[in-house]
Design brief:
47% helix, homodimer, 17% strand
């Protein structure tokens, strides 16, 4: 859409090569669709003028002049001058004031305005046009000499900073102007500039001019025209200042976009009690409620509202203080929202009772508001369902699902300096509780009824029960897909991962963060949505949507946001073509995911069940067995336990497909690490610690990620696969008999790199299935497929598909091997890579289309060629990432699978992907 | 070629559907090209007959009958019987004897004969046709009653074993026949069967028959026809015995090939002093010398020669003992070699002065002989240069280059049971010396003038100096491309890696291997060509070729094998299109490689120089520096040392291209591991051990192979790349000035996964080059490229090629990530994978064409599209592997690079690849 408009705008310009776009309340040269050349602010000012709204007259100098300015090292196109002179004349006519006229001076503001908002990044000059003569005119016209001289003082200061580049002298902390003001205040014995008299201000003006002379060798420019040229050049120049460049790099804004410059007549909200200024939203930006929402201050300038020195009033109060302006503002806001078909953020000024609109733009909003506004606007026939779906950032749904900090307590904590550090926002939501440094402590503390936060260097599967007992997890190492992050998201726990400034000593039960010592049992608060870590407690509350989905909230009438959420999700399901499954290892996770709308399980990691109760003992016995017979003895103990696990999952999923992965991690992950535990295990196994240690050492690997794991285990020890298959099919048969609902298991063999591996493992599965079905006198439909998680599996997918009935892309591991980056070690340099623009995004968070995606494309194409209609899915963490879901849609996958708490996000993202694709 | 012949043979058979192919000295139904249906032995017997040579009459039953037999569960095609009857009649006519005739019996041998030789794997029956009547005829005709009855006894025993399947009774160690013989010997008070009288043998025959009756319930078959059918069925059946299946799996022989059966008239070399038997080669199989070479025994059977009970005579002696037969044999061997155009291995028997040829086949030979024969035969105009090149297995060249054990001492060591264990044959050659368990000990021991073997669990870069001091390296862990194996091959050291039965305790300075204790200082011997480890010393000698290449041998006239080697290599260079470079880190390695014919350096691992002298201190200081300034201070110390390293290499390479890789391994690899060393380092750096340990811990990684290494280091610490580039360009300028030969550096950035990484690093290199060239007032031509060693680099090669002037495939790492297998950990399961036919070969030894090769293909195609004529090479270990070199040829690479000692192998393999491609 955008490029077409740009082209149209350009072709207009070819017909009449404008550099300057004039606007006033009679109309405008530009319009809202010309953001590319007018910037966002300029385009919307033009649009408001076209709608006949009271905008102070002015003009926008196009972004193309900025590009010209940059490329020519600071010169302007030759025709610019003439265009500008005409534009200023029109402003003068519109207002009946004159630029440089000592009696009735026209003053202007000069502001930057890029295609996208870059708040605070570039320079602004206000009150331009003031000089020793016009200041008197302003004083007369406003009847407020102090106001006029203070405006002049401010202008001198601002201009000298922005245009003349006069900063602090060497060795000084503050600019020479600030120092002058300090001196003056001291001399007068006052605390603030407001308390200075007119004469003081006049004296300051004189002193400021001397500073300019001293520092630049020239007089301060008295000519308003010179001032204007200087300010325009400075704004264009500021496009390439360090701050702006850094901001653009961070936000991926191309440097060649340039900024526009908006020159607008000054209006003053500080001209007296019938003047004022404010900001407003056409709906409540926090809740999305349909009500005019805003704040204002009488007798004040815009910066006073922002600065927060005086507490502004709620917009409703304006009705009394300036009834005419308020009425007009109400009409305008309604009209603007209807016109833009979106919630608007407005800036206005009232000068002597007269309303001026200074800005309008699409308003920022919370996740709650985002959902509610989109859904409400469909009801109001402002937008269509697809537009509503495209309006909501899927990630914003997190806010509706996660507990949040009490806003007041949070801002208090910030003020008190309790923010300790920031890590990766690995599991969204807010949690507060007592710190525990071991899983066992966490379980014990939780049993005593406390909320618990588990703090570890990095978690391991041994910590699972401790993580389960905790409300939040904090780690010092590991990235967005580290063990802690993965498990936390799956469990729906708050998680801050890789907070490298935390020096954790689990043995001593203490952690030091930037000098603050946190001991076991101390209160701590984690914001997993931002990655922030606070000392002390901050109270949290559970999300309404969750209350409702989990049935607790269903008794009472659903709130507006819950209703909106439900509607949006229904629409999403109608539009999406991708299925959405969940990664879940426990029946309760399955139930959560179903509540969130999951249509099946895309990944059950059988080994995640291994750490519960007596299972781990049998698992360890199996691992440390000396021979096949010993392994089979241990597996016999494990069989009924695994069967029970599977029964629970099949029952919970009520006939939905369930993908079960056979044993995947390297065996040493299941072994204890602490000497005491090792001793206990040795005793249990009836061997010496030395014998056990030797066996354990032999299992150690240099690079476990590339070691003896995945189907390699099933190949070396076929009895493991056999036992898992038996547990699975027996469970499926039992549930089928008991519940009369047929489970649909899909057995997934991990880490396949050759077709032959899958063949050998699939043979075992089919053999066991036949045996169990005969014995149980019932058959259950099932599939055997593979996790595609190695480059070689993608490259030989054609061969693999001759055995595999489905592929599920394990994009975590696939990303690791495609990039040669371990997700656990990548934390050392991935942030730096993103900063240096080497990575557009963390490839473990957002699927890498040119690399990993190209491999997936090869696999999909070859796989489909070898087996028509082969089922294709993704079960890596990317399955819950909106950008990655678009890639999956483009690849034509059948479904994505993600952790339970990301299911709603995936549903919406899938709908957006389907809509974008059309 | 083969399939076409098979087709022709089949179409012949369609015309006349033969199961039985007759042959005698008048002619044959088959010929040498029909190995698929006649097996190797049958085809060559037919060929000899067609050449009119004296072969005992007989016939071959085709492999297709074997397949029929297997598929039908042990039945024969209906037309077989008639064909066989006719064939036996023809044999009877040819010899004037009759099958089953008591006066003049025809006896036959029944032997298997598959397409390829499977020595000892299947069963054979001799003397078939004997029974209570024919034995008398044999006695009369031979005039040797004892001979006849002993033959009968042997036949009964053999047939009962092979056909009737009569083995040891339960609870007995030996077969009932052997037990009978033992009893008889005891009764007679003799030591050997030879001492038994005719009557004893007759008694044994009677007892044997009783055993058969007892065990089978039936009489021993007296009818020669029944005997023959039984034997044929048994031979076909033996195709599927466990031994044969195991052998086929090991040697990748398809099970559906089947075996042929050869039925041939028996001739007897043990009929008296004018009879004899022997084996011979048309040239010396050890040296390749052109002389008739063989051994024989008069009055003996074939098995007597093989069994080694009597010492056979050299073939020349036959001239005196059987002048007519000898003359005929000389003619025949000459004719056969000329006919087959290759050295032949012959078996013959002389019966009463009459010569019979029993077998001929292409003769096995040593590497020395292989080279010499191929080259000589070109001189003799028997074969062409390309044929000669294709005849020599490139791996066989190893024998010409490596030291070898003294054959006598070796066989003595074997007899004495000194073979301790077998590991991977990771570095070819033989070495003997005193065992050292630490690098420091090895250096010290070597300094005392001893030959040293370094024994380690696994080596690390810290061991480099110790490896250098050693003649051989033995490790308990790690595979064919483990650190030990890689470095050993590069240094040309003998290496046995991954000898898992060695329990090594370096601290205690002892190792236990299958119960034998080896202590520091004990003598040990390693055969890196076979992987064998022997206790005690076995003396070795240096190869002649090496003496010659290194100039020591040039004073005297080159020996025949050296001359042949030189010629073969010249031809190889003429035919190959691939360049051959070497992987070398030191000037002496460069010189070795040049002697071996290297045309450049394909990989210099700068970090391999880091462990020498004071360099490691500077490196460690750099790694542990707290900030950029600290790192730069340390790098300043490193700069002159690196420059000197590079100068040495550029000087040695005399203008040949030299690819230098910037720092690659994870930094923690350079840090000490032992507490004492850590303490010393802390002292040197002026920090506490605790501080040092904390810093070291922060560098630890879960999967270092996927961690902070390669160009990721250069991105994080640009000053490292800058210093290395500076050292390199300064060295190049210095050498250019001093030697007037222009070095040709090619700077290679490792582990690139995105184009941007390479851009950032290449910018630094170009910047430094410009700066150095200006300062030194001389320019050196250079290239900047990248190692393609990650799947993502292959997948985005098009983008990368916009910066890269060359690609060098790092197939070690590329294989690791494509398969998701660490080469260090793969040892746990790769051998099992090969055994289970999941891998055709170790992918780290032989390039995986469908997976890794497909990625390389993508990279080559996209790379060439983006940059015409981009230089493409390979520097992984595969660069020295003949099968992989074929893949490189097919991909159209410009060069391969390998360790110095594999350069000749690569040159020959490249020639073969080019010839095969045409």
């Amino acid at each position: 859409m955008k490029p077409a408009k740009t082209a149209r705008a350009r072709s207009n310009r070819n017909a009449k090569p404008l550099h300057v776009y004039y606007f006033d309340d009679k109309g405008a040269d530009g319009n809202k669709d010309m953001k590319d050349i007018l910037g966002g602010k300029g385009a919307n000012l033009a649009e408001m003028c076209a709608l006949g709204m009271p905008v102070p007259p002015g003009f926008t100098i196009s972004t193309e002049v900025c590009t010209f300015y940059s490329h020519t090292g600071g010169t302007f196109p030759p025709t610019l001058r003439g265009e500008m002179i005409r534009a200023v004349e029109r402003m003068e006519q519109a207002l009946g004031r004159e630029f440089g006229n000592p009696d009735n001076p026209l003053l202007v503001s000069v502001r930057s305005g890029a295609r996208v908002s870059m708040p605070g990044m570039m320079d602004t000059v206000l009150n331009l046009g003031l000089n020793d003569e016009t200041v008197e005119g302003l004083a007369k016209r406003s009847g407020n000499e102090r106001f006029a001289w203070d405006s002049y003082r401010r202008f001198l200061q601002m201009y000298s900073d922005v245009v003349l580049d006069i900063r602090a002298d060497p060795g000084e902390q503050a600019s020479p102007f600030s120092l002058e003001i300090q001196r003056k205040k001291k001399a007068r014995g006052v605390d603030s500039v407001i308390e200075l008299e007119v004469e003081d201000l006049k004296d300051l003006v004189a002193r400021f001019k001397k500073i300019v002379k001293r520092r630049t060798g020239e007089d301060f420019p008295e000519s308003p025209a010179d001032q204007l040229w200087g300010a325009i050049g400075a704004v264009f120049g500021s496009w390439n200042n360090d701050r702006a460049i850094a901001y653009r790099e961070m936000n991926r804004i191309p440097g060649d976009w340039g900024t526009a410059v908006n020159v607008m007549a000054m209006v003053f909200g500080n001209m007296g009690q019938d003047s004022g200024t404010g900001v407003a939203f056409t709906r409540d930006p926090a809740t999305g409620e349909r009500r005019f929402y805003g704040e204002f201050l009488m007798n004040a300038q815009g910066e006073d509202v922002v600065a927060g020195i005086r507490t502004p009033d709620q917009i409703e109060k304006l009705e009394k203080l300036s009834p005419k302006a308020y009425k007009q503002l109400l009409r305008i806001q309604k009209k603007l929202e209807r016109h833009y078909r979106d919630m608007q953020d407005l800036e206005f000024t009232i000068e002597n009772g007269r309303l001026f609109m200074l800005q309008c733009r699409s308003g920022k909003r919370t996740g709650f508001a985002s959902v509610r506004i989109a859904v409400d606007m469909v009801g109001e026939r402002l937008i269509s369902q697809t537009e509503a779906l495209m309006r909501v950032d899927p990630e914003a749904l997190n806010q509706l699902l996660q507990p949040v900090f009490d806003p007041k307590q949070l801002s208090a904590a910030k003020k008190e300096g309790r923010l300790l550090t920031k890590g990766l926002n690995a599991g969204p939501g807010a949690a507060s509780g007592k710190v525990c440094f071991t899983a066992a402590d966490a379980v014990a503390m939780k049993a005593k009824g406390h909320e618990v936060l588990l703090v570890r260097e990095e978690t391991s599967p041994e910590d699972i029960r401790g993580m389960h007992a905790s409300s939040g997890i904090l780690t010092a190492r590991g990235g967005m897909t580290s063990h802690a992050a993965l498990v936390a998201r799956q469990m729906g726990k708050v998680c801050v991962a890789g907070a490298g400034e935390c020096e954790i000593d689990c043995k001593k039960g203490r952690m030091v963060v930037n000098g603050t010592v946190v001991k076991a049992g101390d209160e701590l608060s984690l914001n997993g949505t931002t990655g922030e870590v606070y000392s002390g407690s901050i109270s949290t509350r559970q999300s309404e949507v969750l209350d409702y989905l989990f049935g607790k909230g269903r008794k009472k009438k659903a709130s507006a946001v819950v209703e909106a959420y439900e509607k949006l999700m229904t629409w999403a399901d109608k539009h999406r073509t991708l299925g959405v499954r969940t990664n879940a290892d426990q029946p309760d996770q399955c139930l959560t995911a179903i509540a969130f709308g999951a249509e099946g399980v895309g990944l059950t990691r059988t080994e995640h069940m291994f750490f519960e109760g007596s299972k781990i003992d049998a698992v360890r016995e199996m691992i440390l067995a000396a021979d096949t017979a010993g392994r089979e003895r241990a597996l016999k103990k494990l069989l009924p336990l695994q069967r029970k696990d599977f029964e629970g999952i099949f029952k919970a999923m009520q006939g939905r497909p369930v993908t079960v992965r056979t044993l995947d991690p390297p065996l040493h992950e299941f072994l204890p690490h602490e000497p005491a535990q090792i001793k206990a295990l040795a005793k249990e196994l009836g061997v010496t610690v030395k014998v056990l240690q030797t066996k354990m050492n032999s299992l150690q690997e240099f690079n476990p990620m590339l070691g003896h794991r995945g189907c390699r285990l099933g190949i070396s020890f076929p009895e493991i696969t056999r036992t898992q298959a038996r547990a699975l099919f027996e469970a499926a048969c039992n549930v089928a008999k008991r519940t009369k609902v047929m489970p649909r298991p899909e057995i997934m063999i991990p880490l396949v790199s050759t077709a032959r591996e899958l063949e050998l493992q699939a043979d075992i599965v089919h053999e066991v299935a036949a045996e169990v079905f005969t014995r149980k006198k019932i058959s259950v439909p099932y599939l055997v497929g593979t996790m595609i998680e190695l480059p070689r599996a993608c490259l030989t997918a054609g061969e693999i598909a001759s055995t595999a009935e489905f592929f599920s892309f394990g994009t975590n591991d696939l990303t690791q091997t495609t990039y040669g980056i371990s997700r656990d070690d990548g934390g050392h340099f991935i942030p730096e890579y993103i900063e240096k623009d080497i990575f557009q995004a963390d490839p473990f968070a957002s699927l890498d289309a040119p690399g990993v995606g190209r491999l997936m494309e090869i696999a999909c194409a070859d796989g489909r060629r070898a087996r028509r209609g082969i089922k294709l899915g993704i079960c890596g963490e990317h399955g819950g990432d909106p950008r990655s879901i678009q890639v999956c849609q483009d690849l034509g996958l059948d479904y994505v699978s993600c952790s339970p708490y990301r299911v709603p996000i995936a549903r919406l993202a899938a709908a957006q992907a389907a809509i974008s694709k059309n």
